[in-house]
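=== RUN LOG ===
request id: a7f3
mode: sequence -> structure
chains: 1
length: 153
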Amino acid sequence: MADIDLALVAEQQQIEAFIRLYKVPGLDIAVMVNHRWNMQDMLAHILAWHESFAHNLHVLAEGKPAEPPRGTLRDVNREGVLALRGVGIPRMLRRLRKAQRIIELHIHDDSIKLIPYRRPGTSYTRQQHLDVVRGHINQHFWELLDVYVAAKG
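=== RESULT ===
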């Protein structure tokens, strides 16, 4: 199995673990994860980034220039969460899965050499981008679990 396939499988598994977390019966999405965001906001954060990744893969596959988020990381994160306020958990989970399907459709496109993550910022190869996304989601997944168990334990 190629390295990109292994990275894709790892990223797919992390997405599914994240989604399963939000399907736990009785999950209190109002639990604060940090000083800014609750559980629902954290899902919005992940969704905003995943949709950005999916969109940029899609447009690059069509031969068009990527449209990565612009601004400081703090501003991009805040804007992504604010844009999804009022969107319910089930809809966000459906959108997360849709973004994942778009990624799976285009990630093997050899014409895509680099994917910009954010402007200004770094661009990544397809495999590097999968690794960055998996790591980002994994970090927040464990943060959510730790905070939730502490809040409810």
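=== NOTES ===
The helical segments are 3-21, 39-61, 73-83, 89-106, 126-152.
Strands lie at 115-116, 123-124.
=== END ===
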